[in-house]
Amino acid sequence: MRPAGSHLLEDPGGLAVTYDSYTPNPRQQQFHGIKRWAGFNHLVKGAVGGLRAGKSACCMQELIDIGMRCPGGTSIAVRQSMPKAEASLVEDMHQFLRGRAVWKASSNSFYLPGGHRVLLAPADEWDRFGSTQFVAAYIMEAQEVKPRIFDTLLERLSHPAGMQSGVPWYRLLFDARGVPSKHWINEYFKAAAWDLDKGPEAREKAKRPWWVYTRFRTSDNVSNLRPGYLEELREMHKNDPGWIAMMLEGEIGYDLEGRPVFGSAFDPDVHVASIECDRSLPLLRSWDWGYNSPAVAWMQFTREGRLYVLREFCPKEISRDQFLDQALAIQETEFPGRTSWTCRDFCDIAGDQADTTGITDMEYAEARLSTAFEGLRKAPVENGLDVIRALMRKQSKIEGKMRPHFLLDESCVTLREAMAGMYYYESLPTGPRIKKGQGYDDICDSVRFCAQAVAGEADIGREEEFGRATTYAAY
Fold it and tell me: Which of 56, 160, 309, 375 is the most buried (most CB within 10 A)?
C-alpha cells in the first residue's frame, strides 16, 4: 500500500495564472490544481456543469498555459462544427490571446511565444486528425460530439514537446453542460473518472483515476456574471426543476426532452399550498423501502374525496431501523400525539425484499409500528398514476371556491420537483419507460400506493361517485 498521497505527482511550478484577462474563481482554481496520477503521462479533465459557470474559460486557460510551457509543440481546440467553432471557440480564444499570440487564418491557428501552435478545428469526423500528434487537446461543448472524438484526441497526445525536463504536460480537457444519464459523458467518462467532489480518498477507487470529473455550478462563477443573472434564470424556470438541475446546478442524469409523468395535470400554482393536518381524519402513511433512497409520505383523504400530501421524508443510504426511527421522530414533531391507531399504513404489499433472516421490510415495519399494511397486490403502475392525475385535474367547490382534489404541502420539495418534471418517461427503443434511480421514483411510488388504494381505480371518470363523502371517526 502506497503512503497517502504518494500516487499524486507534483508538477514543477503548478499552473500559475499567466494572463491578466483571466482570474480564476475558487472552482476553477480547484480544476487547475488537479495533479497527475502516478504511472500516467496524460491527464484527462472534464468540466461539466451549468450555464456560464466558467467551464470553457477554465479549459482554454489551461490549454494556453500548457502551450506556453511546451515551446515548439502543437495543441488543438475543437467544437462539433466549424460554424459553431467560429461563433464561440475562435472568438473566445481571440479574447484570451489578444496581443499575446499571432493568429494565422490560413491555418486556423494561433502561434504562442515559443512557437507553440494551437490549431482550431471542427470535431465532425474522428479521422480528420489523421496521425497528428498533440501536446494538449480541448473539446468545447463536448456533449455535442461523438465519443470517438474523445478517444481519438486522447490517442493523439504524444507530441515530443509535451515532455519538458522530464515532466509530461499531456492533457485532454473538455467542457460540457449537464447531460442525460445515457450520454457517453455519463456512461463512459464519469462512470470511470474520479469525481473531485468525493474527495481525495475516492480517487484511489476510481476505475481510471487519471480521468477527473469536475462539476461546475452557475453559482460558482457569480462574481463574473451581471447582477441578477442567476436569480432571473431561476425565476424564469421555477416550474421546471429539470432545467434548473441541468442548466444551473450542472447535474447529470436529467433529460430535458423526457415526458413528465404527471404532465400538464400538475400545476404548482394550483396544487401546492400550506396545508394543516385535520385532526378528525386518520393520518395516512405510505412507505417505499430500500437502502439507497427509501421514502415515506404523510397524507390525508378528506370527506370530499381529496388527497392531501402533508409531509415527506426522503433520506439517502439509510438502514431500515434508522429510516423508521427518523420517520417516527419527524411524525412526533410534525403531528404530535399521533399514535399508530390513528394512522393507516400503505406500501407495495407485493414487495418481497427481505433481510438475511427472511423477514421482509413490510413484516419488519409492521412489528415496529404495530400496524397492518394496506395496498393492492399486483396493481399496475400506470393505473395508480392515472388515479393521481385524475385527482389533480378534478376540482369542485369548497366554501364557494373551486379547489383541486390533490394538494401538496409546500414543505414537500422532492415530491414537488418530481411532479414538476423530474419524474419522467425516458425514450427507449422498446418504448417509453419511467426513469428510475434519481431519487424521485421512491416518493412518487409512496403516494401512488396510497392514492390507488384510497381513491380507487374504480372512481376514475365516475363524477357522481368521485366526490362522495367518506366518514371517519375523530380520534
Answer: 309
